[in-house]
Amino acid sequence: MTDKAAAPGDRPPYPAVEGQTSPWAWIPTLYFAQGIPYVVVMTLSVVLYKNLGISNTDIALYTSWLYLPWVIKPLWSPLAELFGTKRQWVAVLQFFVGAALAGVALTIPTDHVFQLSLAVFWLMAFASASHDIAADGYYMLALPQHQQAAFVGVRSTFYRLANIGGQGGLVYLAGELTERTGSAAQAWSWVFWLLGGLFVALAAWHALVLPRPAADVRGPGHRAARGLAREFFAVFVSFFKKPGIAVILGFLLLYRFPEAQLLKLASPFLLDPVEQGGLGLSTKAVGIAYGTVGLTALTLGGLAGGWVISRVGLKRALWPLVLAMHVPNVAFLVLALTHPTNLAVISAALAVEQFGYGLGFTAYLMYMIHVAEGPQKTAHYAICTGFMALGMMIPGMWSGWLQDHLGYVSFFVWVLVATVPSFAMAALIKVPENFGRKEDA
Question: What is the pLDDT of residues 70-84, one digit of tens each?
Fold first, then answer.
């Protein structure tokens, strides 16, 4: 999971009200709900549009724009501090996301499905990014610090399960329904109706069971806006005054430069027919190979990367993890050259690539933690995540156009060449010797 940070000015963690609902009753469902709209906007939209016959150029360009709310979410994060409680924000935004999912279901059977559904996905993306702010802020207020640490793994696990359920289970379901109905549009409409109902049920559940921590008080409203605005801009100024800020920004923007382009074309490549250079898999097969096997390998890679850094520190682990991130991209080139038909072989290749991605991404996350160190670490980490999203958005926008002009083989060669800026920035960054290493007791 991509950790997300709350707004500047977040209150320190306070104990929740005594006698509250067990954290097990709401933390798994809260972070499962946090993961669903993100995977819908970023991944399911790509498969949906591919099934509906939209070109790779348009898919990559317009779905990459959907990263924007996560890029700029630090700009409106103070709203969650000024108005209402975090609990109220969570409940309202979840009902809104449920309505948006139903809205997508309504647009799919129309003649202008691409334009109308994109508009709804935009609204869903802004609601999802806002929900991230509120949910993470609420988590810090509802639990004492020792429980926050104890449940951080639970958060990550259920966020990942949402990704696997969306990119794997729902894609498989859409493929199964397409085969039964003979209509991809009808199948996806049913999937989104199901999602909308699920999300409304989750919103109702959280409206009932979320504790009401004493620290989660109503914001001061517009009266405090001026003072908060000054604090907010001071946080930005202090971030951009960090030593070596040019190298920091270069690394944040370029470390995932090849992956940002590859991710947008991975599902279209698997779905496109062999005569167009793809592998010709069914939607169900993509749900299994990429959405289930691949994401499971990604999760395991993330766990392994965290373990490696905890043993040797980020500085010593950096180059092995950078290589693990980028070298396995060659798996897509091999698939494009050989066009295997055995699903187990394809799944194994995707698992290798995704495991390496999971390993390498831990180095990126730990570097963001290092950059954010200091008295304003929460706000600075949020700014880092904005640049992370920007680094995914911009390369993804042109990737479809590039693939349409180059073909899949040449495109995957370009992805390998595009690792050079990432290697260059990794060589320039500076990390303390034992940063991230778990010291012996």
Answer: 888 877 766 766 677
